[in-house]
Amino acid sequence: MLKNGKLKDWQIIFNGSEQLTNDEKNISLQNQSNLTGCLNIYNVSLDNISFLISNTFCEDAVNIVNSKGVINSIVVNNSASDSVDSDFSTLDIKKVNIHNSQNDCLDLSYGTYSIENINVKKCGDKGVSVGEKSTLKINNLRVEDSSVGLASKDSSFVVLNSSVIKNSLLCYAAYRKKQEFSGAKIVINNSECNKDNVFTTLDSEIIFLK
Q: Burial level of 165, CB count in 10 A (0-12/13-18/19+)?
């Protein structure tokens, strides 16, 4: 775990194992220390940081909590569950590349986020998931071979400038999942995905500007 303080101009590399037994994988997912990430960042100021992560069997490949700052790039390959999970954070991220995540590729909650470029492929659940009173601005989004391209839920608001979503069961979803929150909203400028291939609840909306 990286806790408290400030990181500047770091490249953080985490390589897991491709040869774990099923029992070892289960232990990694349970995480005896109640930490959800193989790599955990807590209460850290980030300045020009890059992550290169592969072959993880934790609940999250990287878990960022109560942190703020600028991340240059996040690259994650082969995650047994979520690839990137961030909570209670304010982050400006330049580039996200994720391939082969068994659950969500990018999961953001309780925070304010801005991402320039997202390219994710083979996400078992959502390419991008935003929840619990979060705001997210995305300039360019590309999702391939995933269950859901982009989901906004539980009082969250997403502004998406440009997106390409291919070979996914659902392009966009906006909904309320937890009773203590209200619905969600997505505003989309340019989209290369079937505009009818969306899901909303009555208290949520998806707006296509073009």
A: buried
Q: Which two tokens stand for residue 32?
A: 């005896």
Q: What is the C-alpha separation between 184 and 168, in angstroms, rounded?
A: 21
In whole angstroms, give the CA distance from residue 70 to residue 83.
Answer: 19
Round to whole Å and give the CA distance between 97 and 9: 19
∠ CA 61-43-89, rounded to 5°? 70
Please give the backbone phi and psi of residue 26, each rounded to the nearest 5 degrees, phi first.
Answer: -65, -40
Is the sign of the CA dihedral 30, 72, 114, 206 positive or negative?
negative
Side-chain half-sphere of 176: how many Cα atoms within 13 Å? 11
Q: What are the residues whose beta carbons fall under 8 Å from the beta carbon of 72, sequence distance 6 or more?
A: 48, 49, 50, 94, 95
Per-residue model confidence as pLDDT tens digits over 74-91? 999 999 999 999 999 999
* Six-digit token string for 15: 């390589």
Neighbours of 162 (CB within 10 A): 15
Q: Is the dihedral of CA 158, 207, 145, 22 positive or negative?
A: positive
Locate 73 and state its tokens. Answer: 């790039």
Give dist(CA 14, CA 140) in Å, integer. Answer: 26
Report pLDDT digits (tens) over 110-155: 999 999 999 999 999 999 999 999 999 999 999 999 999 999 999 9
pTM: 0.90
C-alpha 112/C-alpha 101 separation (Å) is 23
- 207 by DSSP, 3-state: which? strand
